[in-house]
Specification:
Structural class: alpha+beta
CATH architecture of the largest domain: Up-down Bundle
CATH topology of the largest domain: Calcium-transporting ATPase, transmembrane domain
Strand content: 15-25%
Radius of gyration: 35 Å
Shape: elongated
Bound molecules: adenosine-5'-triphosphate
């Protein structure tokens, strides 16, 4: 017998499960041990050892290793051991950096792991899908990825899209009855929901019958997982830069070697010098430090409740020029409360706040308990799924907040679910944001059937044929009155939900298409959903940062406008556009005017895609939020797709690059700020590393031109590049944001890394660093070969100190004096440890012969410090 051939009850029996209570925690533990987790073998991560040896794969490191072997063969043991030690030290630094980066990226993966709603010990809970076991009872709703293979127990218009498994992209309607045939392929097993397929409509529950590699898709899963991380555009760009620098390095090396040999220096010495010079030119640490900076940024974003799903988003965030945000939940609290009810031409005020069901109904200051009102509230509950409960002295809801508000309102009148248990829900047409309404067919205790539709009033007023429970014909005059009532509520920023009904004679079995026809309009609910306070400030901050905020909502135009005004989204001349206006607009017309549009109301998810495309067409970098199944195309098309961690569906999350753990608009701003900070930090260390490299090359070139002996010995160059440069660069990557970071215009996405004066800065500072080093050398050398080691030590120390002072200039694009030099403790630590290492190399006796150094006295230090401060003091206050 196959699972689809037996009934749901039989499935429960065979899996030792209970559809009403689920499994017990103890049972789950045993089954997890027996069957393993609900996942399949993924490509294994890189082992620590492989990561360490990976450090030696770098081209330059290989060249160095060859040089070590050569010097060893030639009997220069001290040199070869020293080079080897430096290379190993460098590899260790690289290893720890990369390991941290890997760790933070795999933590991200955990945060992004799919979740499932499961019934255990009689309670519904959200758990990681990997912890599902056979027998678990799981619920599904539109937008979910099915978390395991399920034999369905109940369905409400449930449809799934199974293309990953069957190749068929049209959704399949699911059933619960057992199927007879014994030769059915997956596409015909209508009572099974397959792991990885997508719930496109409706809802349902099912019992897990297979997990991990025991699912239909698990068998072919290895083909589907894509675990490779793609490089970000910046990483790619820097890699390209690296390649150009390699060519320059090789040319320079060849030049130095040839020139040196021509002047009669030993070939071996010149080869090692050439290799060191090549190492000096190539910023080998750069790509790794970029990855580290990105992953550190990702960690900081997690703390601010933004989860990055694609690393490239970190970069793109800094360029965002427009944020298109949903209203409900992102800009508002998503804590809805019914404040007004409009019924039979009368308006009732509802007291009470939040989901606390204490309060009452008042008309003209008199409490009202009319039966018509009771009946209206009952309709609201019957057509809602949400549950109200109290936890830790707080009233909360489980389900859709709009529906929660209706359930709470009814509770205020003493109507709760228990009292409605004699009503049977026979059928449901689920809510979707395109139709903006939902309908249930209910059997009342007296055996009659009644369809209750709730939804956007403008949709329902147009669809209704009658008015009131006694079915008066709905005349134009009545419609106008209803629209007026809606407008009045909406102008107070209330969200409006209308309720219509259609009654059917006893014994009559209506078809689905009859439920929303010939309806009678009953009344209106006006719900308050207060704007988030922090959203308003974030919107103002974004405006200062040159980023426009657009509100996109399915809500009524007046409600949307009122909320947009409260949030300072809408400038005086800003336009509010409705979905139906968009339908009459060509793409060209939309593009021509889109810069003046700030609020889009009553839109469908399809409109969102057009809005994104129009904005992109006129040159914007668009961040777009979304949570529903149908939002995925717009999220995907935008430059930074953003989904909601709490209310978002799996589909929306998968399409997005950024997930907001708290669904909050202010988090988008925080992420943008972080994105900008990371980019500016990357600019900082690129500038630091490259200026240092330019300085080092120039020292060698100057010496060649001036026919001086080499001012730096190879081992010193290696030391500076591989050991003392790295730590300050990483510390720059962890620098805090400059105050200006959210006061500047967004960065152009195609802007190169050297843009806005960075190239000039690198070259000018590099020239100065090189010049002071060669000057220090010449002052000490004075043409006397006896003084060579002394002069070299001075040059080496000047170079290191000039870089360590210059690093503080790199912290700001404005001026070295713009920031508190002690503001970055990491940098202070890095600089201090570099100085300690430098002192060790100069003063520790056994190290002196290795590094060709000798003791320096106070007078030397005065000269060194004076010279090494020159580049920063001279240029530190310049913007270019
Ligand atoms: P957003 O601002 O995120 O687009 P929204 O809630 O305003 O969210 P939709 O969810 O598309 O947008 O809702 C559109 C309209 O449908 C609402 O204004 C409301 O009138 C109606 N509506 C919303 N939720 C329900 C529901 N659960 N049942 C019936 N009608 C609903």
């Amino acid at each position: 017998m196959r699972w689809y051939q037996i009934s749901a009850d039989e499935t429960a029996k065979q899996t030792n499960s209970d559809p009403h209570k689920g499994l017990s925690t103890k049972e789950v533990e045993q089954r997890l041990k027996r069957d393993g987790r609900n996942e399949w073998k993924e490509e294994k991560g890189v082992s620590q050892l492989a990561l360490f040896f990976g450090q030696f794969k770098d081209f330059m490191v290989l060249v160095l290793l060859v040089a070590t072997v050569i010097s060893g063969l030639l009997g220069e043991y001290i040199d070869s051991i020293a080079i080897l030690l430096i290379v190993v030290l460098n590899a260790l630094i690289g290893f720890f950096q990369e390991r941290n980066a890997e760790k933070s990226l795999s933590k991200l993966k955990e945060l992004n792991a799919p979740m499932a709603r499961v019934l255990r010990d009689g309670q519904w809970a959200k758990i990681s899908s990997a912890e599902l076991v056979v027998g678990d009872v799981v619920s599904l709703s539109a937008g979910d990825r099915v978390p395991a293979d399920l034999r369905l127990v109940s369905v409400t218009s449930l449809e799934t899209e199974e293309s990953a498994l069957t190749g068929e992209s049209l959704p399949v309607a699911k059933v619960t009855e057992k199927l007879e045939s014994d030769q059915l392929g997956p596409q015909d097993q209508l009572n099974i929901a397959f792991m990885s397929s997508l719930v496109t409509r409706g809802s349902g529950t099912g019992i897990v019958i297979g997990t991990g590699s025991n699912t239909a898709v698990g068998q072919i899963a290895e083909l589907l997982v894509d675990t490779k991380r793609k490089e970000t555009p910046l990483e790619r760009r820097l890699e390209k830069l690296g390649k150009i620098l390699i060519v320059i390095a090789l040319l320079l090396t060849a030049l130095t070697v040839l020139a040196g040999v021509y002047r009669g220096n030993p070939v071996y010495e010149m080869l090692i010098a050439g290799v060191s010079l090549a190492v000096a030119v190539i910023p080998e640490g750069l790509p790794a430090i970029v990855t580290v900076a990105l992953s550190l940024g990702v960690q900081r974003m997690i703390k601010q409740k933004a989860i990055v799903r694609r690393l490239s988003a970190v970069e793109t965030l800094g360029s965002a020029t427009v944020i298109c945000s949903d209203k409900t939940g992102t800009l508002t609290e998503n804590q809805m409360t019914v404040k007004e009810i409009y019924l039979d031409g009368k308006t009732y005020t509802v007291t009470g706040d939040g989901y606390d069901p204490s309060g009452g109904f008042y008309r003209d200051d008199k409490e009202s308990k009319e039966e018509a009102l009771q009946q209206f509230l009952r309709y609201g509950v019957l057509s809602s799924h949400a549950k109200v409960f109290r936890k830790k002295k707080r009233w909360m809801i489980d389900g859709d907040p709009t529906e929660g508000a209706l359930v709470v309102a009814a509770k205020k009148a003493g109507i709760d679910e228990g009292k409605l248990s004699e009503y049977d829900i026979l059928h449901e047409i689920p809510f979707d944001s395109k139709r903006k309404r939902m309908t249930v067919l209910v059997r009342t205790p007296d055996g009659k059937q009644i369809a209750i539709t709730k939804g956007a009033p403008d949709v329902l007023i147009e669809k209704a044929a009658y008015l009131g429970a006694d079915k008066k014909l709905l005349a134009d005059k009545d419609k106008r009155k209803l629209y007026e009532a809606v407008d009045q509520m909406a102008a107070k920023a209330l969200r409006t939900i209308a309720v219509c009904i259609r009654q059917f004679p006893a014994g009559y079995e209506p078809k689905e298409e009859e439920l929303e026809k010939e309806m009678s309009f009953i009344g209106l609910n006006g719900l308050i959903d207060p704007p988030r306070k922090e959203a308003r400030d974030a919107i103002i901050d974004c405006r200062k940062a040159g980023i426009k905020t657009i509100m996109i909502t399915g809500d009524h135009v007046k409600t949307a406008t009122a909320i947009a005004n409260m949030l300072h989204i809408l400038p005086p001349a800003g336009k509010v556009v409705e979905g139906k206006d968009l339908d009459h607009m060509s793409d060209e017309e939309l593009q021509a005017d889109v810069d003046n549009m700030y609020v889009f109301a009553r839109v469908t998810p399809e409109h969102k895609l057009r809005i994104v495309q129009a904005l992109q067409k006129v040159g914007h970098i668009v961040a777009m939020t979304g949570d529903g199944v149908n939002d995925a195309p717009a999220i995907k098309a935008s430059d930074i797709g953003i989904s909601m961690g709490v209310t978002g569906t799996d589909v929306a999350k998968e399409a997005s690059a950024l997930v907001l753990m708290d669904d909050n608009f202010a988090t988008i701003k925080a992420a943008i700020k972080e994105g900008r900070t990371i980019y500016s930090n990357i600019r900082k260390f690129v500038r630091y590393l490259l200026a240092s490299n330019v300085g080092e090359i120039l020292v060698m070139l100057f010496a060649m031109i001036l026919a001086l002996p080499m001012p730096l010995v190879p081992i010193q160059i290696l030391w500076v590049n591989l050991v003392t440069d790295g730590l300050p660069a990483i510390a720059l990557g962890m620098d805090k944001a400059e105050d200006e970071v959210m006061k500047q215009k967004p960065r152009h996405p195609n802007e190169g890394i050297f843009a806005r004066g960075l190239g000039t800065k690198i070259v000018t500072r590099g020239i100065l660093i090189g010049s002071v080093t060669i000057i220090a050398f010449m002052l000490m050398y004075q043409g006397d070969p006896e003084r060579l080691v002394y002069a070299q030590t001075t040059a080496f120390t000047t170079l290191v100190m000039a870089q360590l002072i210059h690093v503080f200039d790199c912290r700001s694009e404005k001026s070295v004096f713009a920031r508190n030099p002690l503001g970055n403790v990491w940098l202070i630590g890095a600089v201090l440890s570099s100085i300690v290492l430098l002192l060790a190399v100069i003063y520790v006796d056994p190290l002196q012969p290795i590094f060709h150094t000798t003791d320096l006295v106070m007078r030397d230090w005065t000269l060194i410090l004076a010279l090494s401060a020159v580049p920063t003091v001279l240029f530190g206050f310049m913007k270019k």
